[in-house]
Amino acid sequence: MASIFSKIIAGDIPCYKVAEDDRFFAFLDINPLAKGHTLVVPKKEVDYIFDLDDDTLREMSVFAKKVASRIKEWSGCRKVAVVVLGLEVAHAHIHLIPINSESDVDFRKEKLKLTPDEFEKIASRLRG
Ligand code: AMP
Predict the structure, then answer these.
(1) 29, 37 Cβ separation under 8 angstroms
(2) Which residues of the chain register pLDDT less than 70?
(3) pLDDT tens across 23-52, in order?
(4) 4-127 belongs to which homologous superfamily?
(5) Fewest CB atoms within 10 Å of the CB: 36, 66, 69, 87?
(6) Cβ atoms of residues 67 and 21 within 8 Å
């Protein structure tokens, strides 16, 4: 069965899309730690990130770098944190989280509640 992220990539489940090319897809995390918290996923469905073939892993980093630079420019954050958990969704993905301090990347924190309008505005700014 297709993962929830494959369904998002196929357009069967809605998302706030940030970027896409032929191999990768980026969209806002629906439970963000910060405004601009984005997920980068390979279109190829593989559960564990280090089971991706070397070329896909390399290219995914380069794709994430482009998205991170837009997040940094838009948010004015100090850095964009790169986090890989993958405990909830079995489709490899990188979290890109704008941060100003270490505590901004604490996944135990309560997540932001944003309206659909707020999500869409952020996604459209990040799409450029
Ligand atoms: P993890 O697999 O532990 O890295 O966590 C999965 C992440 O995907 C969580 O931060 C969720 O909020 C996020 N997520 C799950 N479903 C969706 C969705 N439909 N749209 C956007 N983000 C999602």
Answers:
(1) yes
(2) none
(3) 999 999 999 999 999 999 999 999 999 999
(4) HIT-like (3.30.428.10)
(5) 87
(6) no
Rounded to the nearest angstrom, the distance between the alpha carbon of 100 and the centre of ligand 1 is: 22
Contacts of 4 (CB under 8 A, 6+ apart): 13, 89, 91
Cβ neighbours around 29 below 10 Å, total? 20
The domain segmentation of the chain, as residue ranges, is 4-127
Query: From ligand 1's centre to the CA of 34, what distance in Å?
Result: 14
- Across the chain, what does the average pLDDT equal? 98
Residue bearing the CA closest to ligand 1, atom 1: 86
* Best residue for ligand 1 mutational test, from 89, 93, 106, 108 (most atoms within 8 Å of Cβ): 89
